[in-house]
Amino acid sequence: VTHSHSANNMPLNDRLFLAQSEVIKDLAEKGPCILLGRCSDYVLADRDDVLKVFLYSDEEFKISNVEKRLGVPKSKAAEIVKKTEKRRATYYNYYTHKKWGDHHNFDLTLNCKNGIDTVVDLIIKSYKTM
Residues 6 or more apart from 81 whose CB is under 8 A from it? Predict the structure, then answer.
């Protein structure tokens, strides 16, 4: 992040976004890597060696996953999913001026319902064909 007087006057969230963007760019410059979230598709938009992937699933799958991972009842899991989705969308929409989840922003969109192994295999195959 370039430190200037005006950058220091930015809100903390904006400074954090800029710092994260610099880390993302540095990692991509060093070689192949996998970046999850943080608007990395937007941050690396000028690179042609990036496979932009969006993973999605239906609400029931998300809720079930949260129930299992966190050991919470279905109602609590549903609340967590709703808040998490809203937070992700707000963050992405604000910093990219694009719509979160819009398949036009990505090279590949995959439904997670077929399991992580299938998703990983499809991502690897897609990357190898770039």
Answer: 59, 62, 63, 66
Query: In which band, very low, low, confident or very high, does the pLDDT at 1 lie, cut at 50, 70 and 90?
Result: very low
Please report the pLDDT score of residue 103 as a whole number: 92
Q: What is the pLDDT of residue 17?
A: 96
Helix ranges (H only) for 1-115 are 5-8, 12-30, 40-43, 59-70, 74-96
Using CB atoms within 10 A of its CB, is residue 115 exposed (0-12), middle (13-18) or buried (19+)?
A: exposed
- pLDDT at residue 9, rounded to an integer: 83
Quote the DSSP letter at residue 56.
Answer: E
CA distances in angstroms from 43 to 46, 50, 96, 108, listed in the order given: 8, 11, 9, 17
